[in-house]
């Protein structure tokens, strides 16, 4: 399956860092973020600053950081702290070729390219959160969205992966089969019979309990719990797919 080239992912990350800063600057830090119950705009900025610090420490040291800077130092502006951390993350990820070996939490991809892809989507999803908090319609590049559909299904869902040191997440299911289509691509998700991790393959299902088809940006937002099913073509029942994604990403409609 073709993935976006790495300069595209780096450019996306740089643009999302800038966009988040622009959106957050005039926003009330106490503004609720609808997709993340209990979060505010200020919480989101501190979360992303912490993510940037952790991943930068991980990439630069090649050692899983168990402690990292999660909050701005006393007296420092949170947005300025976020921008400095995010810019440092960008520089670290741009410092080596995407194929260069790098420690990650995903066993199938131990390269700098993994982090470029993961951070491009991390910052895109949370930029969408800020837009929705501000009452703005989210916009996601279709090419990035199609890759993001693949990422959330094959990286997060297929192996129940979560960032270390958290354990693999199992989902309770009854062997349902789901098919997801967008941008000429197709993924079949076979849920476990009982408790386990789903199997995700880039092929069509002969039969499925539920099918989801739509524009890549609409499928992307729905899979991440950031968009409704209304713009999608849905046949059968797909609630089990969303529940499984909520379990592995911690975003329940969140």
From TrEMBL:
Which Gene Ontology molecular-function terms are recorded? isomerase activity
Q: Which InterPro entries match?
A: DinB/YfiT-like (IPR034660), Maleyloyr_isom (IPR017517), MDMPI_C-term_domain (IPR010872), MDMPI_metal-binding (IPR024344)
Occurrences of domain MDMPI C-terminal (ranges): 143-239
Mind listing the UniProt keywords for this protein, alphabetically? Isomerase
Tell me the ranges covered by the Mycothiol-dependent maleylpyruvate isomerase metal-binding domain, including all copies.
24-131
**Pfam family name, one:** MDMPI_N
UniProt name for this protein: Maleylpyruvate isomerase family mycothiol-dependent enzyme
């Amino acid at each position: 399956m073709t993935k976006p080239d790495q300069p595209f992912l780096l450019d996306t990350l740089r643009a999302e860092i800038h966009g988040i800063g622009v959106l957050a600057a005039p926003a009330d830090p106490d503004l609720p973020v609808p997709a993340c119950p209990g979060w505010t705009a200020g919480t989101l900025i501190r979360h992303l600053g912490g993510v940037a610090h952790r991943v930068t420490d991980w990439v630069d040291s090649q050692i899983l950081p168990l402690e990292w800077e999660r909050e701005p130092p006393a007296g420092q502006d949170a947005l300025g702290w976020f921008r400095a951390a995010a810019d440092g993350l960008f520089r670290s990820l741009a410092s080596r070729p995407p194929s260069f070996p790098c420690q990650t939490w995903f066993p199938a991809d131990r390269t700098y390219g993994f982090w470029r892809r993961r951070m491009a989507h991390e910052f895109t999803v949370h930029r969408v959160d800020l837009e929705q908090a501000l009452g703005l319609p989210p916009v996601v590049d279709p090419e990035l969205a199609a890759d993001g559909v693949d990422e959330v299904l094959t990286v997060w869902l297929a192996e129940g992966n979560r960032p270390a040191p958290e354990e693999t997440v199992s989902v309770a299911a009854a062997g349902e089969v789901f098919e997801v289509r967008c941008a000429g691509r197709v993924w079949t998700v076979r849920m476990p019979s009982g408790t386990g991790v789903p199997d995700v393959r880039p092929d069509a299902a002969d039969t499925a309990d539920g099918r989801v088809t739509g524009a890549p940006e609409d499928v992307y937002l729905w899979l991440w719990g950031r968009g409704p099913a209304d713009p999608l073509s849905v046949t059968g029942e797909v609630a089990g797919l969303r529940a499984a994604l909520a379990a592995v990403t911690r975003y329940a409609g969140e």
